[in-house]
Amino acid sequence: MALSRRRFSCFYCAPFSLLALLGSTLVSLSFCPVAVADDVRVMSFNIRYGTASDGENHWERRKEFVAETIAAYDPDLLGTQETLEFQKQFLEQQMPDYTSVGVGRDDGSDRGEMTALFFKTKRFDLRDEGHFWLSETPAKAGSKSWDSSLPRICSWVRLKDRQSDAPREILFINTHFDHRGQQARDESAKLILRKIDELGADCDVVLTGDFNSSVTSVPYRTLFSDAAGQSPLVDTYAAAGPKETKGDTTISRFLGDRFAGPRIDWIATRGNWKILDAQIDRTAREGRAPSDHYPVTARLQRDGK
């Protein structure tokens, strides 16, 4: 299977700068919280595939905005969804201090959307990486099962955090569930849990993704509460925030103003994590959001065990 990985250095050599960001018309209520020593800043961002017929919201008109939104939050771990190869290449150019891992869902190389993930090269030592498909044959590139409308993929890395004394590695896993197949989403959630056990039984886990499921859905219950009422994973937003409201949607439709809808983009953890903060990033410029999904963020800290 072909893998795609690139290493970079010197983030501040990127074409945009913090000063430029501060001088722009960006508005956000959620990013730039007070830093905590050795915290891990995580972002999940469905950037909307770049060949979509989105008119004034076409990728070429908003790609710098996407990159600036990421830079403003400055994540240590970034999971992206709907990322085509040329979009991944653009982000690589804009974020030269990150390592990227991602392959196309259609062929395991560069065809089709990716769940490309990024991590800070200087902070993390890459120990392992890989991809699997959300199907009954997860090792088969381009495979799909159940009632899935399209092949769906998951990319992952195992990382050693150089800034932490914690002995356990981090399993960072990023995915995108099918938007039509209910059975496919249900089975994908079960597969994700099995793969987390297989790939990261001895790891502290971070899972990001667009799950195309509400917080009342079967996939949500599968991931966050089993039949015995236990929590296989922790929903960082639910753990850090108030009671769920209809205004907690992560679907933006490119609009900066919030409206009622489901929260379908999640950041989840398992292991020795303390959740410091979790937000839906409603960054906007002149009333427009950088994608048709709002990015979601979480700040985490390990307890060293």
TrEMBL record:
<keyword id="KW-0540">Nuclease</keyword>
<keyword id="KW-0378">Hydrolase</keyword>
<dbReference type="GO" id="GO:0004519">
    <property type="term" value="F:endonuclease activity"/>
</dbReference>
<feature type="signal peptide">
    <location>
        <begin position="1"/>
        <end position="37"/>
    </location>
</feature>
<dbReference type="InterPro" id="IPR005135">
    <property type="entry name" value="Endo/exonuclease/phosphatase"/>
</dbReference>
<dbReference type="InterPro" id="IPR050410">
    <property type="entry name" value="CCR4/nocturin_mRNA_transcr"/>
</dbReference>
<keyword id="KW-0255">Endonuclease</keyword>
<feature type="domain" description="Endonuclease/exonuclease/phosphatase">
    <location>
        <begin position="43"/>
        <end position="293"/>
    </location>
</feature>
<keyword id="KW-0732">Signal</keyword>
<keyword id="KW-0269">Exonuclease</keyword>
<dbReference type="Pfam" id="PF03372">
    <property type="entry name" value="Exo_endo_phos"/>
</dbReference>
<dbReference type="InterPro" id="IPR036691">
    <property type="entry name" value="Endo/exonu/phosph_ase_sf"/>
</dbReference>
<protein>
    <submittedName>
        <fullName>Endonuclease/Exonuclease/phosphatase family protein</fullName>
    </submittedName>
</protein>
<dbReference type="GO" id="GO:0000175">
    <property type="term" value="F:3'-5'-RNA exonuclease activity"/>
</dbReference>
<feature type="region of interest" description="Disordered">
    <location>
        <begin position="286"/>
        <end position="305"/>
    </location>
</feature>
